[in-house]
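Worked example
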Amino acid sequence: MKVGGVPYRAIFTEGAGTRVRVIDQTLLPHRFETVRLRTAADAARAIRDMIVRGAPLIGATAAYGVALAMRADPSVASLKQATAMLASARPTAVNLRWALDAAGALLRPLSPGERADAAQDFAARLCEDDVRRNRSIGEHGLAVFREIARAKRSGAGRSGTGAASKRTINVMTHCNAGWLATVDWGTATAPVYLAHDEGMRVHVWVRETRPRLQGAALTAWELGQHGVPHTLVSDSAAGHLLSRGKVDLVIVGTDRTTAAGDVANKVGTYPLALAARDNGVPFYVAAPSPSIDWTIQDGASIPIEERDPDEITQVWGVDEDGVERRVRVTPQGTRAANYAFDVTPGRLVTGLVTERGVCPAEQGALGRMFRRS
């Protein structure tokens, strides 16, 4: 995707592929800067401090973290140390474990002299696979958009009453499941970008996504960079918009999906799914296969990350003079509990949009999609 007309990926390499850079998402939308990752510790810190975030991008960053570790020391001890450090950076996104397990399985049987190049090649392939996977999710999601567009033109759709409304697909998102959360394209936003690029009229309701405001800071920023019409709303306004027929479909991402179709995503997703169900609005989850945890059946078994309470008690932004500031919004000493994710039961999900197609959020359907018993 593009930033100021220049194509970027959320993680990329320079030179011979050994210099790894990422976009520092903690500075967006007020500053656009990239950061070089020089060591596995740098990669772990980028994941932990949310310089990078989003399950697919976390997995890609971890893979490059392993490659950096092997470049510095290709021993088995170094591999074990790097994977353990990276695995502990964030607990909820299953892509992190998936990428590290795959890297370890590939590298352990190799001689020390082979590991650095093999790790580099693995990370590069993982990134290219992510781009292809997300593009495919976008194409399958685009088919859903086209179906809704046809229904609206025929008068069977929900939102709006005017002629312009009948031509526009109104999508609601939560958090950021865009290209900033992946290597490129995004998951939930991939069909939005494809629809926009082919000339379909699409408008996105962007939920702010407290407490870190990834919707306001990241989704709004990247949609604006690409020229996609969008409107920022408070999280609590979603029910109002859904009840007034202003939303044609909801599509969100996922950090971990169980084998039975339950979905862990940024906190606030579950009440959004409840509101969508109550108002008869389709609720889709863009679920790339690496985010599926086939070892877990029940969403209650997914570990839920609890983050620093300061993310709730403080906000960061730019004042009227352009000065970046962090300010406290609560009384001094207020206790806060900062749950980063919640779990949406599969029964509330209209469909999982995967790289292989759209399927119900049910164990049998998901298993058949990926040929797993």
